[in-house]
Amino acid sequence: MSELRGRKILTTLQEDGQLVVELAEEKLPQPTGHEVVVRVDAAPINPSDLGLLFGPADMNTADYGEGRIVATMPDGARRAMAARVGQAMPVGNEGAGTVVAAGEAPEAQALLGKTVACVAGGMFAQYRTVDARSVIVLPDDATAEQGASAFVNPLTALGFVETMKRDGHSAIVHTAAASNLGQMLLRITQADGIPLVNIVRSPAQVALLKDMGAEHVLDSSSDDFRNDLVVALKATGATLAFDAIGGGKMVGQILHAMEQVASEGQDYSRYGSSSRKQAYIYGALDTGPTILNRSFGFSWSVGGWLLFPFLQSLDAKTLEGLRARVRDNLTTTFASHYQARISLDDALKRDAVMAYNARRTGEKYLLLPNG
Amino acid sequence: MSELRGRKILTTLQEDGQLVVELAEEKLPQPTGHEVVVRVDAAPINPSDLGLLFGPADMNTADYGEGRIVATMPDGARRAMAARVGQAMPVGNEGAGTVVAAGEAPEAQALLGKTVACVAGGMFAQYRTVDARSVIVLPDDATAEQGASAFVNPLTALGFVETMKRDGHSAIVHTAAASNLGQMLLRITQADGIPLVNIVRSPAQVALLKDMGAEHVLDSSSDDFRNDLVVALKATGATLAFDAIGGGKMVGQILHAMEQVASEGQDYSRYGSSSRKQAYIYGALDTGPTILNRSFGFSWSVGGWLLFPFLQSLDAKTLEGLRARVRDNLTTTFASHYQARISLDDALKRDAVMAYNARRTGEKYLLLPNG
Fold first, then answer.
1. Which residues form the Enoyl reductase (ER) domain (chains A, B) (predicted)?
2. In what order do the strands lie in the sheet with A300-304?
């Protein structure tokens, strides 16, 4: 191939506590072996990308130059991020595009010209070298934009359902349920006949999910929320929750309501019911502390849930089954919706940063690195 | 047998929110089948008993009459305790005494005159009818006082070690480690060669455990606590904690320090280390909320731990092994120490209640119902 040059976004936390986010030029080496070079046509800006890109830096007071942002990282966060100081880190978990160069391995050569989705990291770039064996080849009629979010959200939503089965539960509670991920989970559980309690934060989000046919949609901003939650848990028998928020009292409220349902009609026990109540925190829309009032006995567990360790815990056959389900339902069950499409240059401008870094539920941005 | 009459402590939460704790007379029916009647000679007042006996009622402003206390239960607690309203509940998880009457079954008859320990509930009484098959027969030279705490603390401490093995950890962190339970856990781990990090709350408690030969004893009131914790976790490799406190930030601090140790020398990952960090909350010395800052990635879990469900999860052989170990080491590994001994009458007097309900670590009271 002729020499490939492209631009990519790098984020560096400097020794002095300044966070520098900038566009950098790179020259891509000729791919060898199983390597292929993907021209990245679309990459979603996920909450997990924002954590690496900006973290808790103050983007409101940052200095926005030409292709370069300089922001101040709070002291507490600097200590927690000591391990990244001085490293220029590429960003962007996933994306999709066209294979424009390939190593000599047959698996790599076979991908030339194909549209593929990958979860290689560093996808906020015009070109990205990845392993041919790690991509999903999109169906012939699918666009890169349709495949851009084929990994993180779809496999997370499917992972919730697999976790439910593995842990012996039969229904799911989900917070921030109007998100792209939440909508996917709703469609999956509708297809599989799994009861789902959707918790959202506004009447508009209630309407959105109800329009999609959701049965249990609760508005946590409503005065009736606590009662509605008990009613929905009773109807579904849910003893498992996945929480995207992290901070605040929501997880504790859900466990409390589960305990209320489990205790109904039972003899009093000062240790609480024997119903196993589990909540997994998989996001940090609220980075404040998780506050548990422990008004739910002793039979409970709260823990972190993360996609990649979960995928590693699956056997190869189960994992391939999940990937095939995503590929076969890319434009239906696993369709994503985007608030706006932006270029690499736009992504570093103040207006865009303030908008996509607000992490508003259901307002996901799509980066078009070659757009 | 001649007719047996005795007194026992009952606790009743009334409809009007008043908590009544009183002495009541009872006539015990002739035991039948496998039943035996135990004359209770000694019963420890454990934190778990206090939860049922008084809960969060205000014992400071209570009315102390002759053999009868009337206290006010806070509104929030009343709602949580709705299932016990109107029921006169016996108290006292465990205790020991002499079998004075027995049903016709050979297993019951064989116990006549023996000193036994039981975990039948309702042990704050002069007499208690229990199932002959559920008791531990104490060695001939053991007193009831030595066997009074043969169940809850010993099996809890042994249960921590079993849980450690089951969950794949190799060392333990323990809070409120100067308690009777903590001292037992120390002796068990010394015998078994398991690294233990003891967290206590005063220099005097540090001295107590150091005198017992403990290697890692940390004072959470010390300015150096955070650093000391990291050093001890590094030395022991502990990724499992058992916490008696419940409320506050301690559990989160422990997980944070575990994550610090796990991340050292690793590449930065915004998802945290892959080290599985587990904390079990088994007590509620602080009934306030558990506050988790989640500064420890996504590979963590916090949950409740309770003795009886844990015992039920064991196979019969393992359980009998644990009970035999307790019986064989009753006056050494599993010895308990008591701050004071009190009668049933004294137990309902203001001074005694204020003292034993303070739940100070290492200041356990022993009830002598026939003393």
1. 17-292
2. A216-219, A196-200, A172-175, A240-243, A277-281, A300-304, B300-304, B277-281, B240-243, B172-175, B196-200, B216-219
Largest CA distance in chain B: 77
- The domain made up of A4-149+337-368 has a fold known as Quinone Oxidoreductase; Chain A, domain 1 (3.90.180)
Question: A189 phi and psi, to 5 degrees?
Answer: -70, -30
The tokens for B368 are 């002598």
From the CA of A84, how many Å to the nearest CA of chain B?
5
Do the interacting molecules here have an ipTM over 0.90?
Answer: no
CA dist., res. B247 & res. B284, Å (int): 7
How distant, in Å, are the alpha carbons of A310, A311, A319, B18, B229 from that of A314? 7, 5, 6, 54, 35
Tell me the domain boundaries of chain A. Answer: 4-149+337-368, 152-311
Q: How far is residue B304's CA from residue A301's CA, in Å, rounded to a whole number?
A: 6
Contact B303 A301 (CB under 8 A): yes
The predicted-structure confidence for A214-242, as pLDDT tens digits, reads as follows: 999 999 999 999 999 999 999 999 999 99
Position A47 scores a pLDDT of 86
Q: Tell me if the domain spanning B152-311 has CATH number 3.40.50.720.
A: yes
Which residues lie across from A341 on neighbouring strands? A366
Contact of A113 with A138, CB cutoff 8 Å: no
CA–CA dist A231, A261 (Å, integer): 9
8 Å CB contact of A268 and B87:
yes
Could you give the 3-state DSSP secondary structure of residue B238?
coil
Instruction: Please give the structure tokens belonging to residue B20.
Output: 């009544």
| pTM for the full predicted model | 0.89
Neighbours of A79 (CB within 10 A): 10
Yes or no, beta carbons of B274 and A303 under 8 Å apart: no
Instruction: Return d(Cα A245, Cα B168) in angstroms, integer.
Output: 30
B89 shares contact with chain A (CB less than 8 Å):
yes
Shortest distance, CA B289 to any CA of chain A (angstroms)? 4
Token duo for residue A135:
């991509």
pLDDT tens by residue, B216-238: 999 999 999 999 999 999 999 99
Could you say which residues from 227 to 286 on chain A have a Cβ atom under 8 Å away from some Cβ of chain B?
246-247, 252, 263, 266-268, 270-272, 274, 281-282, 284
What phi and psi values does residue B211 have, to the nearest 5 degrees? Answer: -60, -30
Question: Token pair for residue B151?
Answer: 């169940």
Helix (H) or strand (E) holding B67: none
State how far the Cα of B93 lies from the Cα of B108, in Å rounded to an integer: 21
